[in-house]
Amino acid sequence: MASDGNAAIDELQVLRTQFLSELKDCRDEKCIEAVRIKYLSKKGLLPGKFALLGKLSPEERPKLGQELNRLKTLFQTSLKEKLKQIEFQKARASKIDITLPGDRDYPGKKHPLLQVLDDIKKIFSEMGFSIEEGPEVESDYYNFEALNIPKDHPARDMHDTFYLPGGYLLRTHTSPVQIRVMEQQKPPIRMIAPGRCFRKDTPDASHSPFFYQVEGLAVDQNISFADLKGVIAVFARKMFGRDVNIRFRPSFFPFTEPSAEYDFTCVICGGKGCRTCKGTGWLEISGAGMVDPEVFKAVGYDPERYTGYAFGMGVERLAMLKYQIDDIRLFYENDLRFLEQF
Ligand code: DAH
């Protein structure tokens, strides 16, 4: 009988090894459950071994009984352990690793030029200027003639014009909007006109065949050059800060008399002189002046009764100064590495 008892113990050893090896190979809960059913369910392999007890002598029974119970506990705890292990592995695989760099969001936003245009519009709106628009495809009359630039006038050479069939052209500046607004409205007028302009320029760091300008115009009785200077000074300081000064230099434009070009204190060096301002401490912004009486005549305003000032602004130039950008082409390449910085 003793040999029966030992044989039964050996059988249990084999079952134990077999169970542990099958469980070890499990990779998911389904497999663990299958092992549990195979070994521990009512008709499973371990309960099957309880039948061995019947074959043994009363002296040998307790030893095998103990062994059976120990095996049952071992199987149960092993199954539990394995389940935990698999759950842990799964959790670890799906867990967020906070040491990884985060995913960045790329929300859409306004192009830097449009942001600067918004700033310009806001500053002038606060000073009581209306915002006007005109067409990009213009007639020769509005772009040149009515602005006192007759055919063969040398000033036309400065505007390398894209001509279109039928006497049309792509506007070379926003000044024609002055004419359109004055034709439609009576003084007092205080307006700005932002818009895209075109010139046959070869692109380089400071030239683009298309660019934005903002035109300004104020017409009323008793408007003087001092009003122009005041408005430009307020604009300069609101745009670039309190320390920015302005200066006007005599110049020539056919549609203003007198005409000037105006500069801002160099925003890069604060006026000390640097590469951007070529050591002068000043940055050239654009042209301005008092509206030429010839222009008033073209729109039917009485030049004896009304005076006015006009000014232009290059939007890219202002944006380049504001954000310290040294190449105008960057605005038009739509490279996300550039755009996402604004
Ligand atoms: N239209 C001019 C240009 O594009 C800029 C300009 C100069 C506009 C003088 C004005 C002005 O209104 O008064 O070069």
CATH architectural category of the largest domain:
2-Layer Sandwich
Our estimate of the beta-strand percent is 15-25%
Strand order within the widest beta sheet: 1-4-5-9-8-7-6
Q: Measure the end-to-end span.
A: 91 Å
Under CATH, the topology of the largest domain is which? BirA Bifunctional Protein, domain 2
Tally of individual helices: 12
H/E element string? Answer: HHHHHHEEHEHEEHEEEHEHH
Backbone structural class = alpha+beta
The CATH class name of the largest domain reads Alpha Beta
Q: What is the average per-residue confidence, as pLDDT, rounded to a whole number?
A: 92
CATH homology-level superfamily of the largest domain? Bira Bifunctional Protein, Domain 2
Heteromolecules bound: 3,4-dihydroxyphenylalanine
Query: Helical percent range?
Result: 40-55%
Low-confidence stretches: none
Number of strands: 9
Give the tags.
two-stranded antiparallel sheet; rod-shaped; 342 residues; binds 3,4-dihydroxyphenylalanine; alpha+beta; 19% strand; seven-stranded mixed beta sheet; BirA Bifunctional Protein, domain 2; 12 helices
Summarize the structure.
With 342 residues, the chain is an alpha+beta fold. It contains 12 helices and 9 strands.
